[in-house]
Amino acid sequence: MLLRVRAAVAQLAAGLGAGAGAQPPAEPRGGGAGSGASPPAAAFCRPAFLQLTPEELRRADDHTGRAVQSPRDGRRRLPWRTGYAEVINAGKSQHNEDQACCEVVFVERRPSPRGRLMSREGCGELDGGRKGFYFHYWALFDGHAGSGAAVMASEKLHVHICEQLRDLVDILQDPSPPPICLPHGPGDPTRVSVAEDDGEVPNDAVPRFHLEKAVSHESLVIGAIENAFKHMDDQIERERGAQHLAGGCCALAAIYLMGKFYVANAGDSRAIIIRNGEIIPMSREFTPETERQRLQFLALLRPELLGKEFTHLEFPRRIQPKELGKKMLYRDQNMNGWAYKKIEEDDLKFPLIYGEGKKARMMATIGVTRGLGDHDLKVFSSNIHIKPFLSCFPEVRVYDLTQYEHCPDDVLVLGTDGLWDVTNDKEVAGVVMEVLTSYEPNDPCRYTMVAQELVVRSRGVLKERGWRLANDKLGSGDDISVFVIPLGGPGNYT
Amino acid sequence: MLLRVRAAVAQLAAGLGAGAGAQPPAEPRGGGAGSGASPPAAAFCRPAFLQLTPEELRRADDHTGRAVQSPRDGRRRLPWRTGYAEVINAGKSQHNEDQACCEVVFVERRPSPRGRLMSREGCGELDGGRKGFYFHYWALFDGHAGSGAAVMASEKLHVHICEQLRDLVDILQDPSPPPICLPHGPGDPTRVSVAEDDGEVPNDAVPRFHLEKAVSHESLVIGAIENAFKHMDDQIERERGAQHLAGGCCALAAIYLMGKFYVANAGDSRAIIIRNGEIIPMSREFTPETERQRLQFLALLRPELLGKEFTHLEFPRRIQPKELGKKMLYRDQNMNGWAYKKIEEDDLKFPLIYGEGKKARMMATIGVTRGLGDHDLKVFSSNIHIKPFLSCFPEVRVYDLTQYEHCPDDVLVLGTDGLWDVTNDKEVAGVVMEVLTSYEPNDPCRYTMVAQELVVRSRGVLKERGWRLANDKLGSGDDISVFVIPLGGPGNYT
Hints:
Two copies of one chain form a homodimer. Chain A is of the alpha+beta class. Chain A has a domain at 292-367. Chain A has ten helices and 21 strands. In chain A, strands 2, 3, 4, 6, 7, 16 and 17 form a seven-stranded antiparallel beta sheet that branches. A five-stranded antiparallel beta sheet of chain A has the order 1-21-18-8-9. A two-stranded parallel sheet of chain A has the order 10-13. The longest helix of chain A has 27 residues, at 217-243. Chain A starts with 53 loop residues before the first helix and ends in an 8-residue tail after the last strand. Mean pLDDT of chain A is 84; it is low at 1-42, 115-123 and 185-209. Chains A, B: Keywords: Signal. Chains A, B: It comes from Lepidothrix coronata (blue-crowned manakin). Chains A, B: This is Protein phosphatase 1J isoform X1.
């Protein structure tokens, strides 16, 4: 998130004890393998699956060496032999503000009074008689203006997804279309399972609702993930005071459930699938430029949110007062093209969207427009809140793994913008193919090697004039985090 | 637009003298070839380029025979040998509510006091010393709830596009990037040409505006087209009272300018390019389903527009009062997936978006969400206006003709939904290839033959059980209009 949030934002408070006091995660997040207590200093917090020793943690936090971190041989291996690597930034913030999480989560059907009677008949009975299913989960969180939101999101987002899915255990395991209406609400203690309610369907349902829209199982999972992001954001809002949670974060999560990948993105991280050398985009970035029209539309309808400081119109540059009455290029919420307008007094305000590419900012403050947290973020030295313009909702794309034959070299790559800023999709695909061909298909380390290589190539090498890539261009000075998830091949789906 | 607007809308008034009193178009719109007067009855109005005799006009208006209309041999030929064909609906409205226009338009630079001094130096000096350029223009307008808006738009939209482009004559012909700021506004009588203003650029411009955004010539043309649609809509609003303009229309326009096609679409017509057998979509449809989130967002922010009759939430079907307290699938403006919510009193209101596919409606009234007109359209027996939810702005897609080698069989097809409802992209491409191969590449009629065949195949043949396609499925009972525009080949670019 280098340069993406103006350094001057009032809330910038690095290293405030983020995460402290939160419910302890399933595994300790570094800071002493095996210790069940909260990490001693949340600022040093790294992903639990890295199982870093205190010494390793100090090395990971060193801006000078920028050592690449990966799960070590002999320690816990990530599911599907997933590769992971990360590196800290070159000094733009005190600690690595990226966070990551990788979990296999059991979604247990919510208990119901009459449920036990049915439990032997339903499918999906797992885990010692508990009814439910598993999902696999990988997620990256790219924090800004403090690490609190990213840390909490990395600890809790999968819990919220699980919580949303619990009401759907019966429905998702039933091949017939999801019921439009449930007699009693999910979560309601009097709720009974769908199967038990057949007798309760009103007789007039079929003729009455000929305009009934079909809803797929897939769209229920998408809705569950969308709402989980919202609940995650609400939790950060509720607990930010008590837990001193600073900042916000982009969130990119891949969920594997019942044969399909659901890739949910809110922010400027990116996911691509590389299949047989072909690149399949699995996300798009949400920035002031890509979401310009949504933001301008909101500003037009709710001008009070702009606090008389901003105009919802976009101009190619700032207007000077002496240019009043001249004609300048502009565009509004309806336009994709540009046109000239006569400059009026109101146009002298700062444009809601300003700048280009990585330098594009909303309200001169933030360079991403979706994500979690940022509830206290304000325009510098003003009382104008940014949050109303941010969306915590992800875009979810679905990839059906069962529709294709996958070979061991087909992968899903998740990366924070530290990767993509200097290494484009095609280059990433090139590295993936290059590294994978140099390892045996059943080598358990090959995906980790890819992740490490991607991080190293994007970080570059420290020279006299800073971190440099092989082509001598500037390497990424941002935090970089990468997952490389194999889509096929022997023994990966365990 | 069959079934796209509830028949009961208050404004449905077929055959009101639409277009009467409007400025006469460059050529009379049927109703007597060669007569310079306004058409005697706008309801019978057909595209001017068809040059229909009164007898032909009566035949074109016959719902029973549904004769296909095309420009006749020996009369004026359309530019580029463009093919065109149309047919009236099977009785859903009194007259054919589609309209079409095809013009070559000269954009003359707006005169300026000092302009004459420069006129010999500039490029683009054409047409007896007048400075400017030409654009080619093809457009389809699919009217609903009256023919007035479609007729006026077919007469005037290209005039508005020309008007918007007039201010850009110098800028578009200058290969350097468009100026961000003009010393005096286009249309301002004191305006001087860009070339004349070089000396007036402030010295501090370069260091001061390092964040200046580059704007392309192409995006100026897009902006001009977008604003032309807005001005067209404003004109319909202004003149609808005096001229009894009823209804609204979808608008699809293709503009060829300086080597590029600009395809602007507002509504549910469609444009595709067929190049070497490959289909390239040049538009997308704007319907309650495709624009759901924009509409829900507006309704959420401006609930007063719903008049307490509608809810911005979408449900898969109507909710019955007895279902209060149960859980039902829903989605809001943030969601693409579905989730369950407990039904509350407010959810019993009618959903803003309701129905599926061709039956999807906004506020139970209209099946398209962009277009021109509809200023008086209200929800049946209410005072709730539809117009705030409609957008008159098109999406403009650009196709650079100079980037590809085109053969005589490569075409751009524009069609109203009467075509696409029964004949999909692939089938249209099949017909195009099939018909073109049976005519010589230099046969001037071949594109007309394609357009006719597309219309005939979509209309079908009248049998005992109505209009039937070759596969015995129901043919389109809607008005059908098709342009087939060749992209290459000898002698077409004249």
